[in-house]
Amino acid sequence: MATSIKAAKAVTLKNFIKTFTFLPNKSRCLSTTGITRAKKIQVIKTGSVTVVEGVKLEEKSQVVREIKAPTGCPLCEFQDSLTYRDVLILQQFLSPDGKILPRHVTGVCFTMQWKLQNILYQSYSAGLLPKYCPELPVNEDPTHYLKNYKWRKNNVYYEDFSIENPL
Amino acid sequence: MAHNRVMQWAVLARTWWIYDANQQCPFRSAYRLTTYLQGLHKPVYHRHGDVGDHVVVFNTRHIAMRGEFWRTYKHFHHTRFAGGFSRASAYRVHEEDPTRILERACHNRLSGLDNKRTLMKRLHLFPDEEIPEEILENVTGQIQQVQAIPKKLEDYSQREIDSFPRLFKMPEDYDIESYKRENRLEPDQHTSKAWRLK
């Protein structure tokens, strides 16, 4: 309840009604246990005995690093060392279709978001990240796009902490 | 000592070096290659002593230039006739002759030397990995690359990507694909055609 009110910051008619109408299914349940009770059916055969068991699905055990910077920004600690070659870090801030995730999701501060955009551009144009091209609309000729920007097929590198990369 | 005599032969003999130009800056590698061409790496170096070595460079087609240099770096030429000035961007020169940029970079690096032409004759450039065996059988040493080749995201396995620690925790109720644009039947009229892809 508290979260839904907080989300409706802008006082529009749509948001005003939302607070008093039925809440979504997710927050309607009153149980104190986890909301997602996903289980996986496991069948074990030992001789003549077959055991069908519902095993609880565990979430991906991803190690989340502790943020030590007082700003609460995950990138502030690395602002003197983050380069376009750190692909494993940079790909965390991208959605699967290649868009930069917004700041309220990642928690990156304003300045590091600005720098992250530059570094991501460098990493992309150096060919280290995959090409996130959208699918072509119908009746569009792909050769039209390819014949321009002929220099882009050559290899590119960037100088760290230089004018191109003002960190 | 016989050992010293052999060392003297090795110094005065013209040795052959090989260099892989894959993903290397032509201007930085020219700095390193010309020291071997002039013989600056030898203790007996003298400007008029002809002690330079041969250098074989391959993969010059795959050199890397900095930032926007493929577009902005120009090669100039003047025929000395009226209106004979011409210029070309680096990527256009590279299309014509993939060994040209590294050759001019070494040529410019050796400017001011009387023996520049003889030194440039000892530089053997090949656009790809194919090197004739007559040249390859002479090679005895390798020159270290000037830059480390960066690793792409495709080169990492999925397990390596997953096991790398996350920097932030994704909120559970956020839909990552909420901004995904549908593949519409008609092209998007609001963005210009050049920016629609890439």
Describe this protein with a few key phrases.
heterodimer, A: 167 residues, alpha+beta, 3 strands, 11% strand, B: 198 residues, alpha/beta, Ribosomal Protein L13p, Chain: A, four-stranded parallel beta sheet, 9 helices, 33% helix, flat
Please tell me about this protein's structure.
The complex is a heterodimer of chains A (167) and B (198). Chain A has a two-stranded antiparallel sheet with strand order 1-2. With 167 residues, chain A is α+β, with helices and mostly antiparallel strands. Chain A contains seven helices and three strands. Chain A starts with a helix and ends in a 10-residue tail after the last strand. Chain B has one domain: Alpha-Beta Complex (Ribosomal Protein L13p, Chain: A), CATH 3.90.1180. Chain B contains nine helices and seven strands; from the N terminus they run αβαββαββαααβαβαα. The chains are: A alpha+beta (167), B alpha/beta (198). Chains A and B meet through helix 4 and strand 3 of A and strand 3, helix 4, helix 8 and helix 9 of B. Strand 3 of chain A pairs parallel with strand 3 of chain B, so a sheet runs across the interface.
Give the N-terminus to C-terminus distance of chain B in angstroms: 67 Å
User: What is the gyration radius of chain A calculated from CA atoms?
Assistant: 24 Å
Order of helices and strands of chain A: HHHEEHHHHE
Sequence of secondary-structure elements of chain B: HEHEEHEEHHHEHEHH
What's the CATH architecture of chain B?
Answer: Alpha-Beta Complex
Structural class of chain A: alpha+beta
Let me know the largest β-sheet of chain B. 4 strands, parallel
How far from one another are the termini of chain A? Answer: 42 Å
> What low-confidence regions of chain A span 5 or more consecutive residues with pLDDT below 50?
1-8, 20-29
How many β strands of chain A by DSSP?
A: 3
> Biggest sheet of chain A, open or closed, and with what strands and sense?
2 strands, antiparallel
Question: Can you tell me the overall shape of chain B?
Answer: flat
Order of neighbouring strands in the sheet with most strands of chain B: 6-2-1-7
Regarding quaternary structure, what we see is heterodimer
The CATH topology annotation of chain B reads as Ribosomal Protein L13p, Chain: A
**Overall geometry of chain A:** extended
CATH hierarchy class name of chain B = Alpha Beta
